[in-house]
Design goal:
There is one protein chain. The chain is elongated, with a radius of gyration of 43 Å. It folds into two domains: 84 residues, no CATH class; 134 residues, Sandwich (Jelly Rolls), CATH 2.60.120. By secondary structure, it is α+β, with helices and mostly antiparallel strands. The strands form five sheets. Strands 7-5-16-10-13 form a five-stranded antiparallel beta sheet, with no helix packed on it. Strands 8-9-14-11-12 form a five-stranded antiparallel beta sheet, with no helix packed on it. The protein has a two-stranded antiparallel sheet with strand order 1-2. The chain is built from three helices and 16 strands. Strand 11 and strand 12 form a beta hairpin. The longest helix has 20 residues. Keywords: Secreted. One of its GO terms (cellular component) is extracellular region. Pfam families: C1q. InterPro entries: C1q_dom, Collagen/C1q_domain, Tumour_necrosis_fac-like_dom.
Length: 223
């Protein structure tokens, strides 16, 4: 009878329980159910779509650092600005400044005013013998000019781009005095384009020198 009871207890233990690594006793049916739940969870995780599409970069420490699309766009914008910055004057300096020393008389209509004393001519675009600037490269340029008329004189000059007037410079001296007129313009030019300052309407005119009349320009932005 005692041997029969021992056999029954042994069969019950083998059929009902099994040992696990964590030291807990689970039935075979419990283990099977847990396995199914685990597989279902893993399957659900694979099908989940993240709310934000994040990129992952690796730093030197080996940790993952996530950054949003907004940060990526900001980096891209910075790169574009840096590329544009390289197109500034550093790539090819163009600048000139010339003064008028001698008085210029008998200046006819549409005749160039000569600024013969060159202070600066970076890029070699200004030609003092003709008072003409020829763009050595395409870009956006700033030009300025100041004209002084003789005592009791009158000057109506114009700045021209490829022969076409873009602005007027006027001065009129009264009561035996001088007068000055100035203009500044921004012009988009192609390589080989010309800019000059010329007498406009008054024939047989005179332009005062003495470093009181000037013509200057410089490249702002390459094209």
């Amino acid at each position: 009878m005692q041997e029969k009871n021992i056999a029954l207890e042994t069969d019950k233990t083998l059929s009902d329980t099994t040992a696990t690594k964590n030291g807990y006793n689970k039935t075979q049916s419990e283990k099977g159910f847990a396995s199914l739940v685990k597989e279902r969870i893993l399957s659900d995780r694979k099908n989940v779509t993240p709310e934000n599409d994040y990129a992952v970069s690796h730093n030197r420490s080996g940790k993952d650092e996530s950054f949003s699309p907004a940060v990526e766009n900001e980096d891209r914008s910075t790169a574009v600005l840096q590329a544009k910055h390289k197109r500034f004057v550093a790539e090819g300096t163009v600048a000139f400044s010339a003064m008028k020393v001698a008085r210029q008389d008998h200046v006819g209509a549409n005749q160039n005013i000569i600024f013969e004393q060159v202070l600066t001519n970076e890029g070699g675009g200004y030609h003092q013998n003709h008072g003409v600037f020829i763009a050595p490269q395409s870009g956006v340029f700033v030009f300025s000019s100041t004209i002084m008329c003789v005592p009791n004189g009158e000057v109506d000059a114009e700045m021209v781009h490829n022969g076409n007037g873009v602005t007027h410079i006027y001065c009129h001296g009264d009561g035996g005095s001088h007068d000055q007129g100035s203009q500044t313009v921004v012009i988009k030019m192609n390589a080989g384009d010309e800019v000059a300052v010329r007498n406009f309407a008054i024939t047989d005119n005179s332009i005062w020198g003495g470093l009181y009349s000037s013509f200057s320009g410089y490249l702002v932005w390459l094209q």
